Amino acid sequence: METKWLHKTSKKKCILFFNGWSCDEKPLQHLTSKEYDVLSCYDYRDILLPKEINRLFENYEKVYLISWSLGVYVANLLLKARKGLFADVIAINGTLHPIDNLKGIPPAVFQGTIDGLNSKNLEKFWMRMCGGKSAFTHFKSNIPNREFDDQLLELKELKKLIQNHFIDWNIYNKALMGKQDLIFSAASQKLAWEESIEIVEREYPHYCFDKWNSWDEIIEGLSCGKSKY
After folding, report:
1. According to the model, what pLDDT value does residue 224 have?
2. Which of 27, 156, 173, 210 has the most crowded Cβ, counting Cβ within 10 A?
3. Which residues contact 62 (CB under 8 A, 6 or more apart)?
4. Where are the alpha helices (DSSP H) in the chain?
5. What is the pLDDT of residue 121?
6. How far apart are alpha carbons 172 and 193 in whole angstroms?
7. Cα separation, 49 vs 21, whole angstroms
8. Which of 45, 44, 32, 22 lies closest to 139 in space, CA to CA?
9. Three-class SS of residue 67?
């Protein structure tokens, strides 16, 4: 697992962000931050939790966890023992059962993505992730700077991880569900979360970070007790 500070200016509050598959900090670099330092985790070819994460709770008054896509599963798997240490824990367009016919991506679709993945199909996946060509223009100008072979291996390792770990716990307080999500369907997300936590529904595609200008907006809109959006 890799980490990258997106913002680090000795703030009192910090956001720990678990990114989605195939991504890095590039698609997030337009997001500013006034009140938060932001540490991003990505590249789940291995899931060794960086020691840097433990130090967050020593160095900040409040730490918020935001996870997106397959990062929702990875963060839930790794941070169970630290749930009570976060000021809030938010899932965006992902579930705790990411390879599942009802609550995630159907197994045949997930395997088909692996089997057919090449550079051209990865770009097609990103276009679906963004909800179409127009939104993909923003993402493409901030495309992840990663090697294709690493991205393919990451997806294969995630499949093994998910299939070999049974999850019966939930660290999240709230889930943002994109009603236009073409990766994790709205129906799957709703079924996955509706009996456990509050769901915030928005007309967003899977990649929705272009809907915000700052990390502050995300926290203000989605954190517990807030209802700006």
Report:
1. 60
2. 27
3. 12, 13, 14, 87
4. 51-59, 70-78, 107-115, 119-130, 133-140, 148-164, 186-193, 215-222
5. 97
6. 10
7. 16
8. 22
9. strand
Q: pTM of the full predicted structure?
A: 0.96
- Residue 204 burial (CB count, 10 A): 21
Domain residue spans in the chain? Answer: 2-222
User: What is the phi/psi pair of residue 177, to 5°?
Assistant: -110, 115
Q: What gap in Å lies between CA 166 and CA 119, rounded to an integer?
A: 32
218's CB contacts (< 8 A; 6+ apart) are 31, 66, 90, 212
What was the pLDDT predicted at 228? 33
Fold annotation for 2-222: Rossmann fold (3.40.50)
Neighbours of 43 (CB within 10 A): 21
**And the tokens for 197?**
């936590």
Contact 146, 24 (CB under 8 A): yes
Torsion of CA 127, 131, 135, 138, to 10 degrees: -50
Low-confidence ranges of the chain (pLDDT < 50): 225-229
Strand 36-42 relative to strand 2-7, pairing: antiparallel
Query: Long-range contacts for 53-57 (Cβ within 8 Å, ≥24 apart)?
Result: 53/3, 53/16, 56/14, 56/16, 57/82, 57/85
The residue type found at 170 is N
Q: Are 176 and 90 in contact (CB under 8 A)?
A: yes
Edge-to-edge strand order for the sheet containing 13-18? 2-7, 36-42, 13-18, 62-68, 88-92, 174-178, 198-202
